[in-house]
Design a protein that fits this description.
Keywords: Amino-acid biosynthesis, Aromatic amino acid biosynthesis, Cytoplasm, Transferase. With 414 residues, the protein is α/β, with parallel strands linked by helices. The chain has helices at 22-34, 47-61, 75-86, 107-116, 151-160, 179-191, 223-235, 257-262, 299-309, 328-338, 370-376, 400-406, and strands spanning 3-7, 11-17, 38-41, 67-70, 92-96, 119-122, 131-134, 142-146, 168-173, 196-199, 202-205, 215-218, 238-244, 266-271, 274-279, 288-291, 313-316, 343-345, 349-352, 362-364, 385-387, 409-413.
Length: 414
């Protein structure tokens, strides 16, 4: 499905309800599989979370000797389930995914689990899915892992740690990437009663053998999804967009959007679990520089906003973007260039030159990447734009296009 987007409005006043954080939901789904007395509310309705739910349910009720589990494009599910099945005693699964998933590295996590005694073998190319996992009782507790890789590898180990006989003492080697996501994982473990410690480059997680008391955890709404409304507010002439449910002290690293977009003319106000985004009148725009080492998922939204505002940006800390749903840095370079932008990328940075012109009616390719589709959509406030394979948004935000239409956007299938 290709959509042509057009907006005849420039003043946005609306209230949008966004479902739970995909990042929090997928962590809690795994913990719920380990501790069934956990009750979850406001979970994400994303494809990734549905894939995670289905995989865990199928594994729970399957009695077959070996089971094939296909997680499609869901990178989080691949990492988390690799650790989950490695410690699921007596289970044997082959974990696979889409063509792109078989190109995304898993070796760092596999080697860390093997240090602990896990039995994992590659079905095809060494270092990449599909992988065959034979669940074991894990008694070893000391493990090290490079700290500058995807934080999902680290979180995967931490999430299964309380079920291990001796917990985990995890040493992070080198400079740590995406610290907020690691802290989110630890905070969720703490919430269900797991004792953790994070000092310098060592994380310790104590075992929690039983969780007999029923406990309800409400998932906060997704900050990554909120990023597109920050962009819309910035690119509008006037905006008052109310989003729920959000809190000022969030576990999600992408809540850094509040400070980032304050430098692009958007004020964020919190009241009664609601977040209101207000466009600042007469704001003086200038080029911006951000280190997104802790929040790489919002890079696409930020650079597109800057293009729409006619300002330049220099973004660093982006090395993990090359192993996402696509090579996001190269995808941004290609698509922004089509719009007339002057952009350069390296392995971990992106620089956009200021420009006042955007070419209209350009078709943006999305590369099976939900964030490419949603990040470029707000440009419709400036010029008509076409989003190819627009249905890819279901990976994290299935209601995105209907929510955009509720703001007054025309979304025409072509």
């Amino acid at each position: 499905m290709n959509l042509q987007l057009h907006s005849a409005i420039s003043n946005i006043k609306a209230t949008i309800s966004i479902t739970g954080s995909k990042s929090e939901t997928n962590r809690l789904l795994l913990l719920q599989a380990l501790y069934p007395n956990l009750v979850l509310e406001n979970t994400s309705n994303s494809d990734d979370s549905e894939v995670m739910t289905k995989a865990l349910q199928n594994a729970q009720f399957s009695n077959t000797d070996s089971q094939l589990i296909d997680i499609h494009h869901a990178g989080t599910a691949m990492r988390f389930l690799t650790a989950f099945f490695a410690v699921s005693e007596g289970k044997e699964v082959v974990l696979t995914g889409s063509q792109r998933m078989t190109e995304r590295p898993i070796k760092v996590l596999v080697e860390a689990l093997q240090q602990l005694g896990a039995q994992i073998a590659y079905e095809k190319e060494v270092g990449f899915p599909p992988i065959r996992i034979k669940g074991q009782k894990i008694t070893q507790s000391k493990v090290s892992i490079p700290a500058n890789v995807s934080s999902q590898y680290i979180s995967a180990l931490l999430l299964v740690a309380p079920k291990l006989e001796n917990g985990i003492e995890l040493t992070l080697v080198g400079e740590i990437t995406s610290v907020p996501y690691i802290k989110m994982t630890l905070a969720l473990l703490n919430e269900i009663g797991v004792e953790t410690k994070f000092e310098e480059n060592v994380i310790t997680v104590k075992p929690l053998t039983t969780n007999s008391k029923q406990q309800t955890v409400t998932v906060e709404s997704d900050w990554s999804s909120a990023s597109y409304f920050f962009s819309l507010a910035a690119l509008s002439n006037e905006a008052a967009i109310v989003l729920s449910s959000y809190k000022e002290s969030s576990l999600q690293g992408d809540s850094a959007l509040v400070e980032i977009y304050a430098k692009m003319g958007v004020e964020a106000r919190f009241e009664a679990n609601q977040l209101t985004l207000v466009k600042q009148p007469n704001f003086e725009y200038q080029s911006v520089t951000f280190d997104l080492n802790n929040t790489p998922d919002i890079a696409q939204t930020i650079v597109v906003t800057c293009l729409g505002l006619g300002i330049g940006c220099h973004l660093t800390g982006l090395h993990t973007l090359k192993i996402k749903e696509t090579d996001r840095l190269e995808a941004l370079r290609i698509e922004l260039t089509k719009l007339g932008a002057a952009i350069t990328v390296t392995n971990d940075s992106l620089t956009l030159e200021p420009s006042k012109s955007i070419l209209p009616n350009i078709a943006i390719d999305t590369y099976n990447d939900h964030r490419m589709a949603m990040a470029f959509a707000p440009l419709a406030l400036r010029v008509p734009i076409i989003i190819n394979n627009a249905e890819v948004v279901s990976k994290s935000y299935p209601d995105f296009w209907s929510d955009l239409q509720s703001l007054g956007f025309q979304c025409t299938e072509i």
